Amino acid sequence: MNRKPAPTALGVLAICLLSSFVVFAAIPEFREYPGAEYRLGEVRLPADWDEQAEWTFARLMYPENTCPVRFRRGGYWADGGTSWTIDYPLGDRHIASTIRRLTSVDTRRVEQPVNLDFGDEVFYWPWLYVVEPGTWDLTDDQAAKLREYLLRGGFLMADDFHGTLEWACFEESMRKVFPDRPIVDIPDDDPILHTIWDVDLDEQIPGYQFVVNRQIWEEDGYEPEWKAIYDDYGRIMVAICHNMDLGDAVEHADNPEYPESYSAQAMRIFGNYIVYALTH
Questions:
Q1: Whole-angstrom distance, CA of residue 269 vs CA of residue 43
Q2: Which of 75, 134, 138, 228 lies 20 to 30 Å from 67, alpha-carbon distance?
Q3: How far apart are CA 75 and CA 121, in angstroms?
Q4: Is 127 exposed, middle or buried (0-12, 13-18, 19+ CB in 10 A)?
Protein backbone atom coordinates (compact mmCIF):
# COMPACT_ATOMS: atom_id res chain seq x y z
CA MET A 1 0.00 0.00 0.00
CA ASN A 2 1.23 3.49 -0.79
CA ARG A 3 0.48 5.98 1.91
CA LYS A 4 -0.19 9.54 0.79
CA PRO A 5 0.33 12.60 3.02
CA ALA A 6 -2.75 13.38 5.08
CA PRO A 7 -4.45 16.64 4.05
CA THR A 8 -3.32 19.52 6.25
CA ALA A 9 -6.57 21.52 6.38
CA LEU A 10 -8.92 18.82 7.56
CA GLY A 11 -9.83 20.64 10.74
CA VAL A 12 -11.02 23.67 8.78
CA LEU A 13 -12.91 21.46 6.35
CA ALA A 14 -14.57 19.64 9.22
CA ILE A 15 -15.80 22.92 10.67
CA CYS A 16 -17.12 24.02 7.28
CA LEU A 17 -19.03 20.78 6.91
CA LEU A 18 -20.45 20.96 10.41
CA SER A 19 -21.68 24.49 9.76
CA SER A 20 -24.16 23.04 7.27
CA PHE A 21 -25.69 21.04 10.13
CA VAL A 22 -26.24 22.99 13.36
CA VAL A 23 -24.44 25.48 15.60
CA PHE A 24 -21.86 24.23 18.09
CA ALA A 25 -23.50 26.02 21.02
CA ALA A 26 -25.35 23.05 22.52
CA ILE A 27 -23.49 19.92 21.42
CA PRO A 28 -25.12 16.89 23.07
CA GLU A 29 -23.26 15.60 26.11
CA PHE A 30 -21.19 12.42 25.95
CA ARG A 31 -23.04 9.37 27.24
CA GLU A 32 -22.28 5.68 27.59
CA TYR A 33 -24.39 2.55 27.38
CA PRO A 34 -23.78 -1.08 28.29
CA GLY A 35 -22.46 -2.99 25.29
CA ALA A 36 -23.09 -6.47 23.98
CA GLU A 37 -19.50 -7.41 24.86
CA TYR A 38 -18.52 -4.92 27.58
CA ARG A 39 -20.28 -3.91 30.78
CA LEU A 40 -20.90 -0.24 31.38
CA GLY A 41 -17.62 1.31 32.54
CA GLU A 42 -15.55 -1.81 31.79
CA VAL A 43 -13.56 0.06 29.11
CA ARG A 44 -11.78 2.85 30.96
CA LEU A 45 -12.33 6.38 29.73
CA PRO A 46 -9.23 8.19 28.41
CA ALA A 47 -7.88 10.86 30.74
CA ASP A 48 -8.92 13.64 28.32
CA TRP A 49 -12.29 12.13 27.41
CA ASP A 50 -14.16 15.39 28.13
CA GLU A 51 -12.08 17.60 25.82
CA GLN A 52 -14.03 18.86 22.82
CA ALA A 53 -12.66 18.46 19.30
CA GLU A 54 -13.68 19.17 15.73
CA TRP A 55 -14.63 15.58 14.86
CA THR A 56 -16.19 12.68 16.76
CA PHE A 57 -16.71 9.02 15.88
CA ALA A 58 -20.51 8.77 16.10
CA ARG A 59 -22.29 5.41 16.25
CA LEU A 60 -25.89 4.90 15.18
CA MET A 61 -28.33 3.38 17.66
CA TYR A 62 -31.26 1.45 16.20
CA PRO A 63 -34.18 -0.84 17.08
CA GLU A 64 -33.76 -4.49 16.12
CA ASN A 65 -35.87 -6.28 13.53
CA THR A 66 -37.74 -9.56 13.58
CA CYS A 67 -35.65 -11.25 10.89
CA PRO A 68 -34.37 -14.68 11.99
CA VAL A 69 -30.77 -13.48 12.21
CA ARG A 70 -28.12 -15.18 14.32
CA PHE A 71 -27.25 -12.75 17.05
CA ARG A 72 -30.29 -10.77 18.11
CA ARG A 73 -29.54 -9.77 21.68
CA GLY A 74 -33.00 -8.76 22.87
CA GLY A 75 -33.72 -6.04 25.38
CA TYR A 76 -34.62 -2.42 24.70
CA TRP A 77 -32.34 -0.95 22.07
CA ALA A 78 -32.35 2.61 23.47
CA ASP A 79 -30.83 1.33 26.73
CA GLY A 80 -27.85 -0.36 25.03
CA GLY A 81 -26.76 -3.97 25.05
CA THR A 82 -28.35 -4.82 21.69
CA SER A 83 -26.72 -5.37 18.33
CA TRP A 84 -25.80 -1.74 17.68
CA THR A 85 -23.31 -2.00 20.58
CA ILE A 86 -21.13 -4.73 19.05
CA ASP A 87 -17.43 -3.74 19.36
CA TYR A 88 -18.58 -0.72 21.41
CA PRO A 89 -16.92 1.18 22.95
CA LEU A 90 -13.43 -0.30 22.58
CA GLY A 91 -13.46 -0.45 18.77
CA ASP A 92 -14.66 3.15 18.50
CA ARG A 93 -11.89 4.42 20.77
CA HIS A 94 -9.24 2.50 18.87
CA ILE A 95 -10.45 4.11 15.64
CA ALA A 96 -10.50 7.57 17.22
CA SER A 97 -6.93 7.04 18.44
CA THR A 98 -5.85 5.95 14.96
CA ILE A 99 -7.36 9.02 13.31
CA ARG A 100 -5.68 11.30 15.88
CA ARG A 101 -2.32 9.64 15.26
CA LEU A 102 -2.32 9.28 11.48
CA THR A 103 -4.20 12.34 10.24
CA SER A 104 -4.51 16.02 11.09
CA VAL A 105 -8.17 15.65 12.05
CA ASP A 106 -8.74 17.08 15.53
CA THR A 107 -10.48 14.01 16.97
CA ARG A 108 -12.30 13.52 20.25
CA ARG A 109 -11.01 10.62 22.32
CA VAL A 110 -14.43 9.09 22.91
CA GLU A 111 -17.33 8.08 20.69
CA GLN A 112 -20.91 9.39 20.58
CA PRO A 113 -23.94 7.07 20.38
CA VAL A 114 -26.65 8.76 18.29
CA ASN A 115 -30.39 8.13 18.64
CA LEU A 116 -32.40 9.34 15.63
CA ASP A 117 -35.39 9.89 17.91
CA PHE A 118 -33.54 12.57 19.92
CA GLY A 119 -34.66 15.69 18.06
CA ASP A 120 -31.93 17.16 15.85
CA GLU A 121 -29.05 15.39 17.62
CA VAL A 122 -27.88 13.52 14.53
CA PHE A 123 -27.10 16.78 12.72
CA TYR A 124 -24.23 17.52 15.09
CA TRP A 125 -22.21 14.58 13.80
CA PRO A 126 -21.10 14.48 10.11
CA TRP A 127 -20.05 10.82 10.45
CA LEU A 128 -22.17 7.84 11.50
CA TYR A 129 -21.09 4.23 11.85
CA VAL A 130 -23.62 1.41 12.07
CA VAL A 131 -22.65 -2.14 12.99
CA GLU A 132 -24.68 -5.31 12.32
CA PRO A 133 -27.32 -3.47 10.27
CA GLY A 134 -28.60 -6.85 9.17
CA THR A 135 -30.54 -6.64 12.45
CA TRP A 136 -31.81 -3.05 12.23
CA ASP A 137 -35.43 -2.03 11.79
CA LEU A 138 -35.71 1.70 11.27
CA THR A 139 -39.11 3.28 11.82
CA ASP A 140 -40.50 5.51 9.09
CA ASP A 141 -39.62 8.59 11.14
CA GLN A 142 -36.07 7.37 11.76
CA ALA A 143 -35.61 6.60 8.06
CA ALA A 144 -36.83 10.08 7.12
CA LYS A 145 -34.45 11.67 9.64
CA LEU A 146 -31.53 9.62 8.32
CA ARG A 147 -32.39 10.54 4.72
CA GLU A 148 -32.40 14.24 5.60
CA TYR A 149 -29.10 13.87 7.43
CA LEU A 150 -27.44 12.19 4.45
CA LEU A 151 -28.81 14.64 1.88
CA ARG A 152 -27.52 17.52 4.01
CA GLY A 153 -23.96 16.16 3.78
CA GLY A 154 -23.83 13.42 6.40
CA PHE A 155 -22.06 10.11 5.87
CA LEU A 156 -23.02 6.59 7.00
CA MET A 157 -20.69 3.58 7.08
CA ALA A 158 -22.39 0.18 7.47
CA ASP A 159 -20.24 -2.74 8.64
CA ASP A 160 -20.31 -6.28 10.06
CA PHE A 161 -23.22 -8.07 8.46
CA HIS A 162 -23.00 -11.24 6.45
CA GLY A 163 -24.79 -13.38 3.91
CA THR A 164 -27.98 -13.14 1.91
CA LEU A 165 -30.46 -13.09 4.80
CA GLU A 166 -28.77 -10.25 6.68
CA TRP A 167 -28.41 -8.36 3.40
CA ALA A 168 -32.16 -8.64 2.81
CA CYS A 169 -32.89 -7.34 6.31
CA PHE A 170 -30.41 -4.48 5.85
CA GLU A 171 -31.88 -3.55 2.49
CA GLU A 172 -35.43 -3.50 3.83
CA SER A 173 -34.67 -0.55 6.11
CA MET A 174 -32.24 1.06 3.66
CA ARG A 175 -35.04 1.21 1.08
CA LYS A 176 -37.09 3.20 3.57
CA VAL A 177 -34.26 5.73 3.62
CA PHE A 178 -33.64 5.82 -0.14
CA PRO A 179 -36.35 4.00 -2.11
CA ASP A 180 -35.20 5.66 -5.33
CA ARG A 181 -31.40 5.35 -5.13
CA PRO A 182 -29.50 2.22 -6.22
CA ILE A 183 -26.95 0.38 -4.14
CA VAL A 184 -23.92 -0.09 -6.40
CA ASP A 185 -20.39 -1.48 -6.25
CA ILE A 186 -17.65 1.03 -5.46
CA PRO A 187 -15.40 1.31 -8.55
CA ASP A 188 -11.65 0.93 -8.16
CA ASP A 189 -11.01 4.56 -9.14
CA ASP A 190 -13.41 6.10 -6.62
CA PRO A 191 -11.66 8.78 -4.52
CA ILE A 192 -12.74 7.08 -1.30
CA LEU A 193 -10.18 4.35 -2.02
CA HIS A 194 -7.33 6.83 -2.50
CA THR A 195 -7.94 9.59 0.06
CA ILE A 196 -4.94 8.81 2.28
CA TRP A 197 -3.88 5.32 1.22
CA ASP A 198 -4.33 3.56 -2.08
CA VAL A 199 -6.33 0.48 -1.12
CA ASP A 200 -7.93 -2.27 -3.13
CA LEU A 201 -11.02 -4.05 -1.91
CA ASP A 202 -10.24 -7.60 -2.94
CA GLU A 203 -9.32 -8.70 0.57
CA GLN A 204 -12.04 -10.01 2.88
CA ILE A 205 -11.51 -8.84 6.46
CA PRO A 206 -12.90 -11.32 8.99
CA GLY A 207 -14.10 -10.88 12.53
CA TYR A 208 -12.67 -12.43 15.67
CA GLN A 209 -14.18 -15.79 14.74
CA PHE A 210 -11.13 -16.22 12.48
CA VAL A 211 -9.04 -16.78 15.61
CA VAL A 212 -11.36 -19.60 16.67
CA ASN A 213 -12.05 -21.43 13.41
CA ARG A 214 -9.64 -19.88 10.84
CA GLN A 215 -12.67 -19.13 8.68
CA ILE A 216 -12.79 -15.79 6.87
CA TRP A 217 -16.46 -15.78 5.95
CA GLU A 218 -19.65 -15.96 8.00
CA GLU A 219 -22.98 -17.49 7.00
CA ASP A 220 -23.03 -17.65 3.16
CA GLY A 221 -21.07 -14.42 2.80
CA TYR A 222 -18.14 -15.93 0.91
CA GLU A 223 -17.10 -12.84 -1.05
CA PRO A 224 -16.37 -9.30 0.18
CA GLU A 225 -18.81 -6.69 -1.11
CA TRP A 226 -17.90 -3.00 -1.00
CA LYS A 227 -20.95 -1.02 -2.04
CA ALA A 228 -22.31 2.50 -1.81
CA ILE A 229 -25.21 4.86 -2.34
CA TYR A 230 -24.28 8.09 -4.13
CA ASP A 231 -25.87 11.52 -4.11
CA ASP A 232 -26.75 13.51 -7.23
CA TYR A 233 -23.20 14.90 -7.45
CA GLY A 234 -21.35 11.60 -7.35
CA ARG A 235 -20.49 11.74 -3.64
CA ILE A 236 -20.83 8.61 -1.53
CA MET A 237 -23.41 9.09 1.22
CA VAL A 238 -23.59 5.47 2.42
CA ALA A 239 -20.55 3.17 2.33
CA ILE A 240 -21.48 -0.49 2.81
CA CYS A 241 -19.04 -3.19 3.94
CA HIS A 242 -20.90 -6.49 3.49
CA ASN A 243 -19.42 -9.88 4.41
CA MET A 244 -16.76 -8.05 6.40
CA ASP A 245 -16.05 -7.10 10.00
CA LEU A 246 -13.79 -4.08 10.05
CA GLY A 247 -14.97 -3.14 13.53
CA ASP A 248 -13.72 -6.44 14.97
CA ALA A 249 -10.43 -6.04 13.13
CA VAL A 250 -9.80 -2.70 14.82
CA GLU A 251 -11.22 -3.74 18.19
CA HIS A 252 -8.72 -6.63 18.31
CA ALA A 253 -5.75 -4.67 16.96
CA ASP A 254 -3.93 -5.22 20.28
CA ASN A 255 -4.78 -8.91 20.44
CA PRO A 256 -1.74 -10.99 19.39
CA GLU A 257 -4.01 -13.85 18.33
CA TYR A 258 -5.72 -11.75 15.66
CA PRO A 259 -3.66 -11.18 12.45
CA GLU A 260 -2.09 -7.73 12.35
CA SER A 261 -2.53 -7.53 8.57
CA TYR A 262 -6.31 -7.52 8.89
CA SER A 263 -6.24 -4.85 11.59
CA ALA A 264 -3.91 -2.65 9.53
CA GLN A 265 -6.07 -2.92 6.42
CA ALA A 266 -9.23 -2.15 8.40
CA MET A 267 -7.59 0.95 9.87
CA ARG A 268 -6.58 2.13 6.40
CA ILE A 269 -10.15 1.77 5.19
CA PHE A 270 -11.59 3.57 8.20
CA GLY A 271 -9.04 6.34 7.69
CA ASN A 272 -9.90 6.72 4.02
CA TYR A 273 -13.64 6.69 4.66
CA ILE A 274 -13.47 9.20 7.50
CA VAL A 275 -11.27 11.66 5.64
CA TYR A 276 -13.42 11.26 2.54
CA ALA A 277 -16.53 12.02 4.60
CA LEU A 278 -14.92 15.25 5.83
CA THR A 279 -13.58 16.44 2.50
CA HIS A 280 -16.24 15.44 -0.05
A1: 24
A2: 228
A3: 23
A4: buried
Residue 96's SS3 state is: helix
Closest CA to 220 of 240, 242, 241, 205: 242
Which tens digits make up the pLDDT trace of 116-126?
999 999 999 99
Picking from 157, 161, 172, 132, the residue whose alpha carbon sits closest to that of residue 220 is: 161
The Cα–Cα gap between 134 and 219 comes to: 12
Cβ neighbours of 138 (radius 10 Å): 21
Question: What is the percent of the chain with per-residue pLDDT over 90, rounded to a whole number?
Answer: 84
Q: Name the maximum alpha-carbon separation found in the chain.
A: 49
pLDDT of 201 reads 87
| pLDDT confidence of residue 19 | 41
Distance of CA 253 to the CA centre of its chain: 17
Hey, what amino acid is at 127? W
The dihedral through the CA atoms of 247, 248, 251, 254 has a sign that is: negative
Give the torsion through C-alpha atoms of 71, 87, 182, 72, to 10 deg.
Answer: 20
| Spatial CA neighbour of 104 closest among 54, 153, 157, 59 | 54
Q: Enumerate domains of the chain plus CATH numbers.
A: 52-279 (3.40.50.12140)
Percent of the chain past pLDDT 70, that is, above it, reads 88
Of residues 170, 193, 183, 152, the one with CA closest to residue 20: 152
- Contacts of residue 22, defined as CB under 8 A and 6 or more positions apart, other chains included, come to 120, 123, 124
The torsion angles phi and psi of 81, rounded to 5 degrees, stand at 85, -10
Instruction: Tell me the chain's radius of gyration from C-alpha atoms.
Output: 17
